[in-house]
What we know:
The protein has helices at 2-22, 29-38, 82-86, 91-97, 115-121, 198-244, and strands spanning 45-51, 54-61, 64-72, 77-78.
Amino acid sequence: xxxxxxxxxxxxxxxxxxxxxxxxxxxxxxxxxxxxxxxxxxxxxxxxxxxxxxxxxxxxxxxxxxxxxxxxxxxxxxxxxxxxxxxxxxxxxxxxxxxxxxxxxxxxxxxxxxxxxxxxxxxxxxxxxxxxxxxxxxxxxxxxxxxxxxxxxxxxxxxxxxxxxxxxxxxxxxxxxxxxxxxxxxxxxxxxxxxxxxxxxxxxxxxxxxxxxxxxxxxxxxxxxxxxxxxxxxxxxxxxxxxxx
Length: 245
């Protein structure tokens, strides 16, 4: 398995090295494409410029000013600190940059995303070997044990990866509501519902045991009322027969 991983990394390095030689100098085209896509839909940001390299960017939500940040283009600084951490312009900086005509996005990106750094990352060559006998032996100074296997938890395993904060969430999903326990996040037949299976039967039996006496009393009272009505109608019919004779 280790030799297979070494072989895959060797092929990957060679592929990336070939791509890096074909790229033009400057910032990576993928980063420029991401910034151009992120510069759209910034109409909720209000820009107030007092200097060509400085501006105040206010977030407006429902005609109300929510938050204000200051952008320094020459220093590549924004008070939201996203630009300093990631090295790419934040939405506030993009709003100021795109306010000018034909802006140069590569000028405001950190040198970390340059083609030169990309070439330096994959410049090393992994040597070719015949088999495992050529692996170097190293004294670790400790005994390395295999990793412990984790016990599988109940429920379905997660397949979708957890997206980062900068990735778009896509279409909004609607939460389902359970008709039994009236809770969000699962359906009626799910194992998460506390009223499924034996618990649901127990709940129904418990409910019927407490409500059955009330229903029986109600039925008896209704039957007594109907009997009284029948008796009163019978007495009236007999009186009418007597008067007729």
